[in-house]
Structure formats: structure tokens, C-alpha cells
Amino acid sequence: MTRSKLSIGLRATLAIFTVTLLVASARAASSEKVLHRFKDDGDGAYPEAGLIFDAAGNLYGTASNNGASGRGTVFELTPKAGGGWTEKVLHSFGGGNDGIFPSAGLIFDADGNLYSTTLNGGAYGGGTVFELTPKPDGSWKERVLHSFGAHDGKGGICPYAGLVLDAAGNLYGTTSMGGDGGGTVFELTPTAGGLWTEKVLVNFNEGNGSYPVAGLIFDTAGNLYGTTFVGGGFGWGTVFELKRTARGWAEAVLHSFNTNGKDGYNPYASLILDDAGNLYGTTSAGGVAGGGTVFELMRKAGGRWTEVILHSFLDRPNDGDYPVASLIFDSAGNLYGTTLGGGGICGGGGCGAVFELTSGAAGSWTEKVLYRFREKGSGGIGPWADLVFDGADNLYGTTQNGGHNTGCGGGGCGVVFEITP
């Protein structure tokens, strides 16, 4: 089954760099453990999104393809006594007006229900927002809350990223296309009778950014922040803010990326905030060597923002390149992430890396590659997704390919992995 292609050849461009994942801890040499290898036998395949934990320590995620109908799954991994993990497919997409091809991660609400998006499918073919509710017998019931499509002439289509919840239970997200042509920011509000109403908050165009493929985040004041892959003042992507006003939501472009040989461009991932309200993110290309960057946007007096490049990936064997995943902080303020390429193992452009950035004196940051994924063996390759910590500082994530199980073209259908310091 062929999935809808994002405009400007985004998926085709990034697919060139499908590679192996590297993960590790900063404190010592790290080891990788594969928790689950996806199989071409009704299981999901090609996970593109990160994972989340529940309070009991179970992991949840999505696989963008395969499953009972060949169109993706939601899965759970449960730790077994004595070691190992057991996978359970909670939902296989496809059939009727269901969504297909989930590319985004999941979120929980306060009642333990799961929410996310599918890139395609639904009543109008433009993707969906769905909810999964646990049932007393251990199964999960899926419900499509909203179907995207061009049927009304104004809505977005193809939501590539996941969702965020506000305190009132409203859902917010982005669509990579549709609206005025460059994608949208939308809000879904629950109404009486269990229905949900969609409202388009922003229609993107070249001037204010285009093609948001990343999700949104809230700050403590209730403002929303996100990125667009292209558009803005130089045409190479933006960081934007949405503030709630008496007339609705007002968008401001905080930074336009450019190709000046220092700045990064084409941001693919969502942002994160530190305690001071500064924003951190990655660009999939640019920097001093063209391999992408890690950047910080610092909030200044008068509403201004200043960009600082924390690291330029050097596109060489001992560094990663082409980061497309979001960052995470540890408790000490160090940053961790993945790169789709680089790492120096696998030949060609490398198989990818997991990296750590540690802050030093005078605002400097030092990068360390923690783990290099290898094409040989049973490990995964091609990390598109961000990482998550457990309580012991182990890192967990997914790779889109690898595992070297049967099917999926012989190279494997992807894995769930753990990196232990």
C-alpha cells in the first residue's frame, strides 16, 4: 500500500538517509538490547515514532505499516518477570473509515486513554485523530475523533505529528498539508454526546512557514510553539509561537532558518523548553558541514529571541548527521537525541547515532556520540524517533528498519531498543 507523499519531496529526501541507530549513556560505555523485532506476520512494521511509558512501566508506540490489514498498528510492550518483553498489538488500522499509516507517537489523558493521528485514511482520506480506550477485558476500543480532508475547502490534511492536550482536555496538532496549501495548526474540542469539533487556528503559507511535520508544545503560560519544514523569511523553515488573544490565536515567527553556512535549516522535529523558557530543537540539514544542527532560541527582553547553534553535525565517520528527532533533557540538563545518518558504521553515509550534549563554561556545549548502530547483526537501523528515559536513566526508542528478521525486504521491519549505561 502506497502512503501519501509529503510535498517538496520531503519523505523522498529523508529516506535516502535511512540508517542504523546508536544509543548510549554518557556515564560509561553503553550497550544496546533489542526488546522487540517487528515481523512481517501480522505484527506492525517500520515504526517512525517514539515511545511512552505508563505508570506500571509498560511501553506504548505505533508502527506505521503492516498489522492485520497492512496499514499500521498501536502496540504495547510489557516487561516479563525474569527479563524480556512481551508485545501485544492493541489495534490494527484499516477498514471502513479507520485511519491508516500512523507516523506519530501517542499521548495519555488522565483516564488512561491513548490519542494520536494517522497520516492517511479516515472518512475523507486525509488522515485522522483517534482515541484508544482500555476495556475491562484487557482489549482496547478505537474511535476516530476527526477525519481530515479537502471536503470543506479549508481543513488540513495528512497530520504527520502527534498531539498535545491542554488542561481542559482539548487536543492540538498540525497537518503537514492542506489549509491554504502549506498545512495548518488545529484544535479539537470535546462537545456534548462524545463528539469533537475541529477549529483551524493557523493556515500556513510561504511567508509564515509551510509544511509543519512536527508536533506542538505548550509553555507554562499556555502559548504553543512549533516548527515548519520550509517557508519563512528565507524559505528554509521557521520556529513559530501561537499566543491566545481576545480575537483568537496570534502567530509570530520567532526565527527563520537560512543557508548562510552556519545556521541549520529544514527543521523536522518538535521543540522542547527548559525551565527558563528557552527553546531547543534540531534541523535536519545545514550548519557548518551540512549535516544538521542542534540549536537554542533564547528569550530576550522585549519579546525578542536569539538563536545559538549548540552543535553542527560534521558529516564525518565519528559524528552523526541528519537529525530528524526531538531532543530530551536528563535531570542534569544534558541533551540527548538521535541522528538518522552518520556514525561511521554501515558505509555510505553511516548508520546513525545517539548523541549527548553536555553544557560547559561560557555557554559552550560538548557533543559525545554514545552509540553507533551497525548494519550487521540483529540491531535496528534508521532512528526517526526521539528517545525516552526510564527511572534508571536507560534510554528507549525505535528504529524504522533493521532487526534482520524475515520479510520487509530482508533487511528487517524495525525494532524497539533499550540502551543501558
Protein described:
- By secondary structure, this protein is mainly beta.
- The protein has a single domain (21-420), classed as Integrin alpha, N-terminal (Methylamine Dehydrogenase, Chain H, 7 Propeller), CATH 2.130.10.
- The strands form 13 sheets. It has a four-stranded antiparallel beta sheet, with no helix packed on it.
- The longest helix is centred in the first third of the chain and has 6 residues, at 10-15.
Give a quick precis of the structure:
The protein is mainly β. Helix content is 1%, strand content 42%.
Structural class: mainly beta
Our count of helices gives 1
Which second-level CATH architecture applies? Answer: 7 Propeller
Major beta sheet summary: 4 strands, antiparallel
Could you tell me the CATH topology label.
Answer: Methylamine Dehydrogenase, Chain H
Radius of gyration: 20 Å
Average pLDDT works out at: 88
Strand order of the largest sheet: 1-40-38-37
Helix content: under 10%
How many β-strand stretches?
40
The gross shape turns out to be globular
User: In what range is the share of β-strand residues?
Assistant: 35-45%
Keywords:
Methylamine Dehydrogenase, Chain H, four-stranded antiparallel β-sheet, mainly beta, 421 residues, 42% strand, disordered N terminus
Could you outline the blueprint of secondary structure elements for this entry?
Layout: H1 10-15, E1 31-37, E2 44-45, E3 52-53, E4 59-63, E5 65-66, E6 73-79, E7 85-92, E8 99-100, E9 107-108, E10 114-118, E11 120-121, E12 128-134, E13 140-147, E14 156-157, E15 164-165, E16 171-175, E17 177-178, E18 184-190, E19 196-203, E20 217-218, E21 224-228, E22 238-245, E23 248-256, E24 264-265, E25 272-273, E26 279-283, E27 285-286, E28 293-299, E29 305-312, E30 320-321, E31 328-329, E32 335-339, E33 341-342, E34 353-359, E35 365-372, E36 380-381, E37 388-389, E38 395-399, E39 401-402, E40 415-420
Antiparallel strand pairs: 1-40, 2-5, 3-4, 4-6, 6-7, 8-11, 9-10, 10-12, 12-13, 14-17, 15-16, 16-18, 18-19, 20-21, 21-22, 22-23, 24-27, 25-26, 26-28, 28-29, 30-33, 31-32, 32-34, 34-35, 36-39, 37-38, 38-40
